[in-house]
Amino acid sequence: QVQLVESGGGLVQAGGSLRLSCAASGRIFSTYTMGWFRQAPGKEREFVAAIRRSSSNTVYADSVKGRFTISRDNVKNTVYLQMNSLKPEDTAAYYCAAGRNLVVVTSRGAYGYWGQGTQVTVDS
User: Fold this and answer.
1) Is 11 within 8 Å of 85 (Cβ atoms)?
2) φ and ψ at residue 89, rounded to 5 degrees
3) Ranges of the chain with pLDDT below 70
4) Exposed/middle/buried for 19, CB within 10 Å: 0-12, 13-18, 19+?
5) Bridge partners, 119 (sequence order)
6) Residue 32 · residue 24 · CB < 8 Å
7) What's the pLDDT score for residue 28?
8) Which DSSP string do the residues of 25-71 spell out, in sequence order?
9) CA 13 to chain centre
């Protein structure tokens, strides 16, 4: 029903920037809450950021607040994660997720659709 494809990951030096993109299928994109999660080796998949139908309604994990920015373009059916001032601890596989009628946007289980992930590696 919904396909999500992430792109934009790569290798970057500490202090650098990357912008991740998540392209979603379907005309119903604008009705979905979109989220970004990340998972490092040996770690639980953790919440990074989320954006609801309104681009003004965003939520960030404390660890990325002030450095990352989530945005969406409902015309292009795409959600973005701008990552600035990257740290080695940001190294992880980043996953895009989509869900509808979410009460809690920080829970992995709340999202029904997931992308394949894109690797972000921050070198010191």
Assistant:
1) no
2) -70, -5
3) 27-28
4) middle
5) 93
6) yes
7) 66
8) -SGGGGGSEEEEEEE-TTS--EEEEEE-SSTT-EEE-TTTTTTEEEE
9) 20
**Res 27: pLDDT:** 64
pLDDT in tens, 39-70: 999 999 999 999 998 778 999 999 999 999 99
**Structure tokens, 88:** 């080695």
Could you tell me which of 97, 74, 75 has the C-alpha nearest to residue 2?
97
Pair 99, 2: CB distance under 8 Å: no
Q: CA 94 → CA 16, 47, 66, 81, distances in Å?
A: 17, 10, 18, 10
pLDDT at 101: 82
Phi-psi region of 56 (alpha: psi -120 to 50; beta: other; left: phi over 0): alpha
Q: Look up residue 80 and give its amino acid.
A: Y
Do residues 76 and 122 lie in contact, with contact meaning Cβ atoms separated by under 8 Å?
Answer: no
Strand partners for 71? 80
